[in-house]
Each structure stands twice: as C-alpha cells, then as structure tokens.
Design a protein that fits this description.
Helix content is 22%, strand content 29%. β7 (147-150) and β8 (154-157) form a beta hairpin. The protein has three helices and nine strands. The protein is globular, with a radius of gyration of 16 Å. It is an alpha+beta fold. The protein has one domain: Alpha-Beta Complex (Ribosomal Protein L22, Chain A), CATH 3.90.470. The strands form three sheets. Strands 1-6-5-9 form a four-stranded antiparallel β-sheet, covered by helices on one side. Strands 3-2-4 form a three-stranded antiparallel β-sheet. This is holo-[acyl-carrier-protein] synthase. One of its GO terms (biological process) is lysine biosynthetic process via aminoadipic acid. It is an enzyme of class 2 (transferase).
Length: 171
C-alpha cells in the first residue's frame, strides 16, 4: 500500500508547467498545459503529484527510486476511453490506472487507486496492489475508515460525512 497526503493550497515556486516538465510524463504535461484556468491547473497538478507519490510508495521506492516521468497516471472511463481526466467522467464510473513507458511487464491492472478530498484542505491518494484471487475483477473490495485525530485530544470518525469526498477511484 502507498499513501500520500498533500495540502490543496500547496504553492509551487516555479511555474506549474516548468515543474511538471521536469517530473511528469509528456502526456501529463500536455494535460496540464491544456487547462487554461491557473487555479484548476494547480489543483490538477497536486492531484497527479499525490497519486504518483502514493504509487511509488506502494512500489516500496522513494521519490528518486521511481522516476515520475516513466509512468503516467490516467483516469479511465466506462467506455474504455482513457486519458487524464475526461471532463464528463464521474468518480463512480471511473478508475485510475498507471501506464508505463519503459517496463511493459508492469501491468496496470495490478494496482488500484483512491483519490480523496479531506476536510476541503487536503488531497489523499491511496494505492493498493490487487490480490491474485481478484485479478479479473475491477476492484479488490476495500473498507476504508477515515478518522480525524488530534493526539491526546480528539478522535472523530469522519467517514461518511461531507468532510471526506471521493474524487476518483474505488468505492
């Protein structure tokens, strides 16, 4: 399993596209470049970054151990159409996958992703490897419980509230 959490208001020192060109695949850079609204572009960049971080953590590699440019995060629709975020796809009808450029032996169906918005302030991405027994299925069943915890002060389950919103991935 790989998990990454990023602040939605995270600032990027150098322009989004220059940063993306350094770390993202050509397809992801093209996707971001096509977004004309700078705030939407920044949010999509952070979502992609969060998903990529969760994936390399699931692989057991660090940031430098799995070059981000060697794979693309894609949002796949029901009709088999694929690429980074078709605008008309809703989370219930989409899945997130990985396309590799340098290692075709890594098949995208081995992984499943979940992208969440937490309390309106953070994105969380979870990447898990599917079990062999569920290989033909779209998703491996997962039960996720989200807690807001302030050590020694508060533990509150926030799953099922408006504070946890599924953006894409398995339910």
């Amino acid at each position: 399993i790989g998990i990454d959490v990023e602040e939605k208001n995270r600032s990027i020192k150098h322009g989004i596209l220059s940063f993306a060109k350094r770390y993202f695949s050509q397809h992801e850079v093209q996707f971001l470049a096509a977004i004309t609204d700078s705030e939407v572009q920044r949010q999509e960049f952070i979502k992609l970054w969060t998903l990529k971080e969760a994936f390399v953590k699931a692989l057991g590699r660090g940031f430098s151990g799995a070059p981000f440019k060697t794979f693309t995060i894609c949002f796949n629709g029901v009709a088999g159409e694929s690429f980074c975020r078709p605008k008309d796809i809703k989370s219930e009808a989409s899945e997130i996958s990985v396309d590799y450029f340098d290692d075709l032996s890594n098949h995208t169906s081995h992984w499943q992703f979940l992208l969440l918005e937490l309390a309106g302030s953070h994105y969380a991405a979870i990447c898990t490897e599917k079990h062999c027994a569920t290989e033909g299925k779209r998703y491996t069943p997962v039960k996720l419980t989200v807690w807001k915890t302030i050590p020694f002060l508060e533990d509150e389950q926030v799953s099922g509230t408006d504070r946890v919103k599924t953006i894409h991935g398995f339910e």
